[in-house]
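In response to reviewer comment 3 from the previous cycle, which asked for concrete evidence that the modeling workflow produces usable outputs, we include below a single protein chain processed end to end. The sequence was submitted unchanged, and the resulting structure tokens are shown without manual editing.
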Amino acid sequence: MAHPLALSYNWQTPAIVSSVAAIACAGFVLRGATPGRVPVALLVLALWWAFLGVVWARTRALLQVDGARLTLRRFRTVHTVEGPQVERVEQYLTAHGPCYRLRVRQPDGRLRRVPAPVALLRAGHSTLFTWILAHAPQAELDRGSTRTLDQLRIRGLVT
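The workflow returned the following structure tokens.
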């Protein structure tokens, strides 16, 4: 049974610190006797919820390898890809590092772009490229993907 990769960051600390800070800030605002304190406290809580939404969305990243089958999830939708379906690997940059989109040929002939959020996962880059080399060698790599693969080979993370 294959297991998903672990997240590469500690999400609990920002969630706890922001929760304590938001509740304390809203409490201080509500204890004051200034007019308009309730809308300000609600704004603080709304910003806190928005931040927690971003933290939660980052925890949804998934990459799981099971032989020639690769399972990916960025936010909501889970995609399962077979090695021979992958036609192209495209790199795009995020605030956490490079991530990739796999162009996959569906059984009905249409092309679909599947995001691989490897920058959010521990050993994500090496796992993805090891899988590509083993099960999707026909996939065309763009310039950024080729550079990343070269760096992984230099570091000994991919053979």
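The chain has two domains: 12-59, 62-155. We consider this sufficient to address the reviewer's concern, and the full set will be provided in the supplementary archive.
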